[in-house]
Task: inverse folding
């Protein structure tokens, strides 16, 4: 071929390839847009035509509907935020952005779920709403002595958790604060006595989370309290403005952690150092559950400005940080929630941690950490046998007529994988509290999430300034003086909530607007409870600087359920740490009694299981914290079972 | 070996500059530096979203480069440049998904073969790739926007090494001009917005800017040729960035380079064409 002809051929070829490459480039750009729309929930994550219709429509489509009834129920309560040192005035909305909390318990043992809500202004009163049993609630906090816990000079409330720490049958109340933590003994549901000083709790802790657990399984509940700000910091009287996190994602200058071992005489002993629980991360949420099948509760810490942590419980003698081995501690994010749920109905507890996602600025996405099966992935397989890996092994003896426990397993660490994107629960805005619960009684756990950081000026955003300072070196980000003033601007404000419905085959769909959740307050805490003893879970939401909301749940008739209330004997009386796995219709669901979960929240102690259209439950297996195991065959459905551990 | 110098490039660039000798070390220095930054940062702070994501970005970039160069020009290219593109994408892009890493790399490499004029590609590849996914997929993608830890020494090492390498490549003036301009414009922004100066300076202390300063604005293939032209262009990048920042655009530097870089190249190409035409006449 002569050179000129060769040159022509090459020219044609290059032009042809140019067309091909151009097509490829344009296709890539189109694909980006399509994938972004799909992944952000614009197409797949939210129900088509989302918008409030009516209850009948919601019931027909999803089997449940929610209606906000707080005021009608006698709950007219708006959270008051704290006001710290004037040197923080320019960024006050964000440093004073927490404190709205809710914790559920039947404190007077009348069979109706009551709840405690915190306030965070100096001098503002907390409230204890007693359930009147007729759909209304009465604030009894002032009369019972648990209202005035925000006195000037003692700090303000950030949250509360209930548990019967002295095993007298009544749930006691622990209030954690930016300030002096408080413990109130429940005097048979008639009043509360402040026992903080005798208990031996520290003078001052700036905490946003705590959980009750019996870490050594001695039958007495211990208390884990996680500091957020350093404990030597009085936010009302700053000595310096160098108080901020030293990094947006690698901060280790937060508050210390505390494990208080219950001595059983009304006092607690600080065993933190002896147990190896030394962390200075900025913890915002903590949960306890048996994650490795050892029978002992492990700890999960959702940390702001850094990685999450899992502390594996080594026989109640020591906690070992296994964050990296389990994968949950590899990517630093802004953790704000710790909730556990058997989302695939296969006996494995997944961990749901919320983070921040703001389109165009910061895309952390929330995490759903699912334990991997040996040799497999964490994705649902639908076999009941797989649940065995998640069942409590436990130690100790068996009660009469109870099967013997398997030998204690060597402490094996299970890897977790994040399936939030796969199942569609990854994007929730600036996410805060979230809880698992079967909202429509179809037999699978759904997920209710609240969000929104600071809702102020509707047309102005602080995000640019926030993103700019967040990348700075510790010398810059660590000093509050360097932070740009918020000037009334919002930061991820006015966000719509998520009610993710589990379809049972590995996909969640946001149905919030259709089922009646349309509020855009700055949500913080979510708690689930059956407030009317109807066999459905209602939703209580505590909003920062906003009203407390109660979403009454209505479930389509014909959907069955079964509930359990446990009372420990050898175990702690609240039965915190007990695991109940039910088997029905060829599937299983595992739940564990919790001493606090979500963000600044505690669900009802009662365990609720939806059953769908199934008319029988084959078997219920209860693993008590003491190590005893109990089985119940074919229990009656559509009723609450109160079960006391054999002594 | 011909007399060339290999400057920092994420576009496969080898800049022909008489008087400077090509060496293997020069060609491999940028990839070695960026790999050191990545490995050091990950071992120290675990900065990578995952090995899979970064690996995917690198593999996609190299595979695309090999395929497109072979098919288009009938030769196998040196993979160093595609490696830098891929690793830059892998470090910069933050997403819970895999596809943004592959797509950003693909767009970056493809652009070199498509968006060309007079034999030069217009955009810095990784700048175009990350800008495209940022602009088109804001709900799925953000950029590395945090500090790598709090120890001053990693930052000192990166700045020192980076400076030495761009100096060896004869492009220190570009990085230095950008930094000086950024600091100056930080004062201007503070004066206008009332924000603390340190708040405005904060971004340049982060790793995103370190990559930007040493690996993007210095790219020889997508910068103009005259020394003072390079200084003027990078000053313009900082100026446009300032305008964008005053409009509260979070990823202003990338968009600024996206806008200014090709504009400067087009002007240079036009002037060269005009000069050649005049000389011919």
Result:
């Amino acid at each position: 071929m002569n050179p000129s002809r060769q040159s022509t051929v090459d020219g044609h070829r290059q032009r042809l390839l140019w067309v091909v490459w151009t097509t490829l480039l344009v296709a890539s750009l189109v694909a980006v847009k399509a994938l972004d729309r799909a992944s952000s929930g614009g197409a797949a994550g939210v129900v088509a035509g989302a918008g409030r219709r009516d209850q009948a429509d919601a019931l027909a489509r999803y089997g449940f509907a929610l209606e906000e009834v707080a005021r009608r129920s006698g709950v007219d309560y708006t959270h008051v935020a704290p006001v710290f040192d004037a040197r923080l005035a320019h960024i006050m909305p964000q440093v004073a952005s927490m404190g709205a909390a809710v914790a559920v318990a039947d404190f007077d043992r009348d069979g109706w779920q009551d709840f405690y809500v915190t306030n965070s202004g100096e001098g503002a009163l907390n409230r204890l709403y007693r359930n009147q049993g007729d759909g209304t609630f009465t604030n009894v906090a002032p009369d019972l002595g648990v209202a005035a816990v925000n006195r000037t000079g003692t700090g303000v409330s950030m949250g509360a958790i209930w548990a019967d720490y002295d095993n007298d049958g009544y749930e006691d109340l622990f209030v954690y604060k930016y300030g002096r933590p408080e413990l109130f003994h429940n005097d048979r549901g008639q009043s509360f006595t402040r026992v903080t000083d005798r208990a031996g709790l520290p003078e001052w802790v700036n905490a946003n989370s705590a959980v009750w657990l019996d870490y050594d399984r001695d039958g007495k509940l211990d208390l884990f309290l996680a500091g957020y700000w350093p404990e030597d910091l009085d936010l009302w009287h700053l000595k310096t403005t160098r108080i901020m996190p030293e990094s947006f994602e690698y901060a280790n200058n937060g508050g210390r952690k505390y494990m208080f071992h219950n001595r059983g005489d009304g006092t607690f002993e600080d065993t933190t150092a002896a147990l190896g629980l030394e962390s200075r991360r900025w913890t915002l949420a903590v949960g306890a559950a048996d994650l490795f099948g050892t029978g002992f509760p492990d700890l999960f810490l959702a940390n702001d400005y850094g990685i999450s942590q899992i502390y594996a419980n080594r026989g109640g003698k020591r906690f070992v940080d296994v964050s990296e081995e389990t994968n949950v501690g590899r990517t630093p994010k802004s953790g704000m929630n710790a909730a556990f749920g058997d989302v695939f109905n296969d006996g494995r507890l997944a961990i749901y941690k919320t983070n921040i996602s703001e389109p165009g600025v910061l895309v952390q996405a929330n995490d759903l950490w699912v334990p991997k099966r040996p040799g497999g992935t964490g994705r649902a397989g639908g076999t009941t046998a797989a649940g065995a890996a998640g069942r409590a092994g436990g130690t100790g003896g068996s009660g009469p007529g109870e099967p013997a426990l398997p030998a204690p397993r060597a402490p094996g660490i299970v890897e977790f994988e994040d399936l939030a994107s796969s199942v569609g629960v990854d994007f929730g805005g600036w996410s805060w509290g979230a809880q698992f619960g079967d909202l429509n009684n179809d037999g699978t756990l759904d997920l209710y999430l609240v969000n929104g950081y600071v809702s102020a000026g509707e047309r102005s955003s602080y995000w640019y300034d926030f993103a700019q300072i967040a990348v700075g070196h510790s010398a810059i980000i660590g000093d509050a003086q360097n932070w740009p003033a918020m000037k009334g601007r919002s930061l991820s404000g006015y966000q719509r909530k998520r009610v993710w419905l589990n379809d049972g085959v590995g996909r969640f769909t946001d149905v919030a607007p259709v089922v009646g959740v349309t509020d855009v307050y700055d949500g913080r805490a979510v708690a689930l409870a059956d407030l009317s003893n109807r066999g459905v879970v209602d939703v209580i939401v505590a909003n920062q600087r906003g009203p407390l909301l109660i979403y009454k749940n209505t479930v389509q008739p014909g959907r069955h359920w079964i509930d359990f209330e446990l009372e420990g004997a050898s175990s702690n009386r609240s039965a915190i740490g007990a695991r109940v796995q039910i088997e029905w219709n060829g599937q299983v669901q595992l739940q564990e009694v919790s001493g606090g979960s979500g963000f600044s929240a505690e669900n009802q102690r009662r365990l609720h299981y939806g059953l769908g259209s199934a008319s029988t439950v084959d078997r219920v297996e209860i693993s008590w914290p003491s190590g005893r195991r109990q089985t119940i065959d074919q229990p009656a459905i559509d009723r609450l079972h109160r079960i006391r551990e054999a002594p | 070996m011909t007399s060339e110098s290999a400057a920092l490039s994420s576009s496969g660039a080898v800049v022909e500059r008489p008087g400077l000798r090509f060496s293997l070390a020069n060609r491999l220095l940028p990839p070695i530096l960026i790999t050191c930054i990545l490995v050091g940062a990950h071992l120290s702070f675990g900065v990578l979203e995952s090995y899979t994501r970064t690996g995917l970005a690198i593999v996609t970039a190299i595979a695309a480069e090999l395929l497109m160069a072979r098919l288009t020009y009938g030769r196998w290219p040196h993979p160093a440049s595609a490696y830098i593109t891929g690793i830059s994408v892998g470090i910069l892009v933050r997403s819970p998904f895999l596809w943004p890493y592959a797509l950003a790399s693909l767009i970056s490499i493809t652009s070199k073969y498509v968006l060309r004029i007079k034999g030069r590609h217009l955009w810095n590849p990784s700048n175009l790739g990350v800008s495209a996914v940022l602009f088109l997929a804001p709900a799925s993608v953000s950029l590395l926007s945090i500090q790598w830890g709090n120890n001053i020494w990693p930052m000192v090492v990166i700045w020192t090494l980076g400076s030495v390498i761009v100096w060896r490549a004869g492009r220190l003036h570009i990085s230095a001009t950008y930094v000086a301009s950024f600091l100056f414009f930080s004062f201007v922004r503070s004066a206008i917005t009332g924000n603390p100066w340190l708040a405005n300076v904060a971004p340049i202390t982060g790793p995103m800017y370190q990559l930007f300063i040493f690996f993007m604005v210095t790219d020889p293939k997508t910068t103009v040729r005259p020394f003072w032209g390079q200084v003027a262009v990078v000053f313009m990048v900082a100026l446009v960035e300032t305008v964008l920042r005053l409009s509260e655009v979070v990823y202003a530097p990338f968009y600024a380079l996206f806008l200014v870089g090709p504009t400067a190249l087009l002007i240079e190409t036009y002037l060269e064409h005009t000069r050649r035409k005049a000389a011919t006449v």
Observations:
- Residues 59 and 280 of chain B are 46 Å apart (CA to CA).
- Residues 1-22 of chain B have pLDDT under 50 and may be disordered.
- The longest strand of chain B covers residues 93-94.
- Chain B touches chain A through 56 residues (CB under 8 Å).
